[in-house]
Write a structure and sequence with these properties.
The protein is mainly β. It has no helices and 11 strands.
Length: 126
């Protein structure tokens, strides 16, 4: 199995990026909750956002509410993180994660998720 993130890069403060997370065919994504985490070297991994397998429920860290938006396209086995109004403190490596779950809730806890991608780097700087 494989999870591949893309879309990271350098962006100025106030700018936007759209991260993508493509799941290999071993995943039937419709039965997985998906989350995005981020990490900087001097801190642990922080949960940013998650979405249930149904897509009905989303959860966001307080620090990103109203600026970042998670979505999914199960037909393409892909999840997205739309990042708007970016701030320098959003600079981090961003990771996509998944867990097999049909619960109508999702958690921003690192230990919840079984499958992880390798990450994509986001730098917000002028």
């Amino acid at each position: 199995w494989q999870i591949v993130e893309s879309g990271g890069g350098l962006v100025q403060p106030g700018g936007s990026l759209r991260l993508s997370c493509v799941f290999s065919s071993e995943f039937s994504l419709y039965s997985y909750a998906v989350a995005w985490f981020r990490q900087v070297p001097w801190k642990g991994r922080e949960g940013v956002s998650c979405i249930t397998s149904s897509g009905d429920v989303e959860n966001y860290a307080d620090s990103v509410k109203g600026r970042l938006w998670i979505s999914r396209d199960d037909a393409k086995n892909t999840a997205f993180l739309q990042m708007n109004s970016l701030k320098p403190e959003d600079t981090a490596d961003y990771f996509c994660a998944a867990v097999g779950s049909v619960l109508n809730r999702c958690l921003l806890s690192e230990t919840t998720y079984d499958y992880w991608g390798q990450g994509t780097a986001v730098t917000v700087s002028s």
